[in-house]
Each structure stands twice: as C-alpha cells, then as structure tokens.
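Standup notes
- HV: blocked on the assembly model, inputs below
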Amino acid sequence: MNYAAADVKRLREETGATFADCKNALTDARSWDEAIKILDAKRDKKADKMIVADRETKQGGVFSYVHHNHNVGVLLELNCSTDFVARSEAFRKLANELALQIAGVAPKYINFEDVPADVVEEARKTILEDPALARVPAERREDFINGKLKKQFGEQVLMMQPWVKDDSIVVGDLVRKVIAETGENIVLRRFSRFELGK
Amino acid sequence: MNYAAADVKRLREETGATFADCKNALTDARSWDEAIKILDAKRDKKADKMIVADRETKQGGVFSYVHHNHNVGVLLELNCSTDFVARSEAFRKLANELALQIAGVAPKYINFEDVPADVVEEARKTILEDPALARVPAERREDFINGKLKKQFGEQVLMMQPWVKDDSIVVGDLVRKVIAETGENIVLRRFSRFELGK
C-alpha cells in the first residue's frame, strides 16, 4: 500500500514494533489492518520463540492489588529471566494489569493446561454425546472438540479471558506483547485471590 | 501504691485502658509493673469474653503488604463483626502489623489448632519417649507434654510467635489487645505469602 512517514510513526505508536518492521509491514500490506496483522503475527512468532527457548524464569517479583474498599485482593508472582526486565516499567505494568484482571474476573486457572485432567475428560465426554459432532467430518472432529473445550473453559482460564480493558484481545495476548517487547519469557507462576467472606 | 494524676495519664497512654481502670489498677497494685499486669489480665478477660461470645465475623477486609523490592508479598483476610470496626484505624493497623509479621517470619499456621492432627501426634510420640517425662509427676504430665508441643510449634504458629516489633508479647496478644479495644471478636481467616522463586 502507499504510505507516508506519518503512517509509519502512527503504526509504531500503535503496535510498539520497530521502525523497520513497520515500514516493511506497510510495504507488504494492502491495507492498514493487514499491516497490523503482519506485525501481530511477527510479534507472536517472536514471543513463541522466547517461550520455546524456555529460559529459566527465576527473576521477577511479587505484586498485589487490593480494592479501595478492601473487599477483594490479589497477590501474584510474575517471573522473567533477568532482574533488568523485572525492574522495567513494562513488566510492572503487566503485573498490575494481571492483578486487576484477576480481582475483577476471578479466574480459576492460569493456563488451559492447569485445568485438572478429570475435569477436562468429563467435559470431553459431554461433547462426544453432542449430536452436532456427527455432522463434523471425521478429520475435523478433534479440532471441533478442542474448540468446544477451550470455549467452555475460556471463562475460567486467565490467559484465555478477554482483557477487561480491551476485549478485542485475551490476557495471553497481553503477556505475549510484553514478552516480544522485552525479549524475555514471562510466566505468571501463581496467584491468590481473596474476597471478603467468600 | 501512692500515685499522682500524671501516673494515671501515663498508664492510660501505655495500656490504652480507661481512666477508671487505670485508677483502680494503681490503687490495688504495689508497683507500676503490677498495675500493668492487672490491666493486662483485665484486658485478656475482656477479650476472652468477646471470643467466647463467638459473634459472627463476616465483616472486615482484605489487606496486602509487599516488600519494596517485590521479593516477598502477603495477602490476608481479617474479619470482625461490624463494618464500623472494619473501617477503624485500630483494625487496619492490626491488619498491617499481621501482614508485616507474616512477611518477615513466614509462619505456617495461624493458630495452634491449625497444625494437622497427625503432625501433632507424631511430635507427641517423640515427647513420650523423652526420658525427662518419667521424672514428671503423673498429674503434671499432660501439662508437660502440652508445654513441649506449644514450644515446638510456637515458631510455626503466627499467634504464638513473638511480635517482630516487641518480643515481650506474642502476636496473639496484639490481636487480643485490639479485640479488647474495639469490643469485637477479630479473626485472621486466611493468608497467602509468596516469596520470589520459592
């Protein structure tokens, strides 16, 4: 697509990507939205690489958030690889956003993998009895079942929840964005959520 | 003992007891320390009454404390009977002191009653094998065993730990003081303590 220098600037502000990446994305894309999609894909790939690298995440910090009326509070441990990133604003902002999300939406699990196997198995059985399944071609059935499962547990799994401040992305995207920004794997290790009298 | 009006004032400041109670304690006591002991006993009795009354403790609040370097954090729920006390300075100060204590000393249990029965039983067996027990008169053996048990678990039980800011009292005394001050039962319902990488 045709673009001006101002477009590159705007795209950088919107996505946090580098100047070169923004220029390339605008050159390759046919529309503004496509340019953003290209950058998103690039960022996810970068984040995946960080996660796959699976470097030790022993740094980080413990953070808390308590509602002003003291009826809900959250404590969490967010890990990364270096003390440098642990002290960065991006990391601390992410910790705060995660605490706010947990306080507001009360997830039961951090990742889909944390849902106990027997609970998933029970849900899978129910889906197998769904008459809709029979109409799905055999080779697509596993995807169909997984899709249903993810939808069913999405509300309880923090990383799959729509972000309270922008429901066009899920919380996992928020984490992946900071992973790409900082170049370090970031892992929410644990959280506690107390609600008065519950 | 002989005392002046200034003594009553000082005693009130030191103990938080009422004017009448301080006057009576000074009249009955033979020394300053005895006057304080009389007031302590009176306060404990009052607190015990509040606890025995066992009024519902459904109010209170969730509070947190995080070390400035974010390597340790604590979340706790402290309960009382009324919203009025929940919003009082004495209650909030107590919540903060408890959080600081938990952050610093890392107790495993809140009360002695929270130590699992099998763990206590195991410790009791070891004490029964202690040769010193044979030299204790039969009628005092149960006290001897309980004393040993409380000593052994005292470090792990929050309410039995010496208070980090004044080790002449235990944390339970701190709670009982606020119970007597506010006239309401106060219960630490639960806590979480996260230490980075532990």
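- HV (later): unblocked. The mean pLDDT of chain A is 89. Chain A has eight helices and five strands.
- Next: hand off to the docking folks.
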